[in-house]
Design a protein that fits this description.
The chain is mainly alpha-helical. The protein has four helices and two strands. A two-stranded antiparallel ribbon has the order 1-2. Helix 2 runs antiparallel to helix 3. It is globular, with a radius of gyration of 20 Å.
Length: 131
């Protein structure tokens, strides 16, 4: 008798069915992934001395309402940190004189929140810093 692969289960009629479950991102995780990708592009533009980032993406405001993986994490601390993040993010679009400093302050805002909530992405977020 063959041993099934770890992700498969042999059923009574000898057919295999997958027990693999696809990870489904929460709305908040998907939003943060999109914000990360946006900020990678902005970082490249800043490093190339391009200062036209377009308009502040209004969908960033969904940070106030997106479903989190753990709804209990949507507390006063998170709400306060979300406001700080949005303020620093908006400065990138409005103050092109201090754009590098504003960008790194936005990265700091992300990391500050992630120190208390969902620490996993911190090392990845640090890669956004502009030297």
């Amino acid at each position: 008798k063959e041993n099934p692969q770890p992700e498969q289960v042999v059923t009574q009629n000898n057919k295999t069915s997958s027990s693999f479950k696809m990870y489904e991102m929460s709305e908040m995780a998907a939003l943060m992934e999109q914000m990360y990708a946006d900020n990678q592009r902005i970082k490249q533009k800043i490093e190339n001395n391009e200062l036209d980032f377009g308009e502040f993406p209004e969908y960033y405001l969904k940070i106030h309402s997106a479903q989190m993986t753990d709804p209990d994490e949507f507390d006063d601390f998170f709400k306060s940190e979300a406001l700080k993040f949005l303020a620093t993010q908006q400065l990138i679009y409005t103050d092109t004189v201090h754009v590098k400093e504003n960008f790194n302050n936005m990265v700091n805002a992300c990391i500050e929140c992630h120190h208390k909530k969902c620490t996993g992405p911190i090392e990845r977020i640090k890669k956004l810093y502009i030297e």
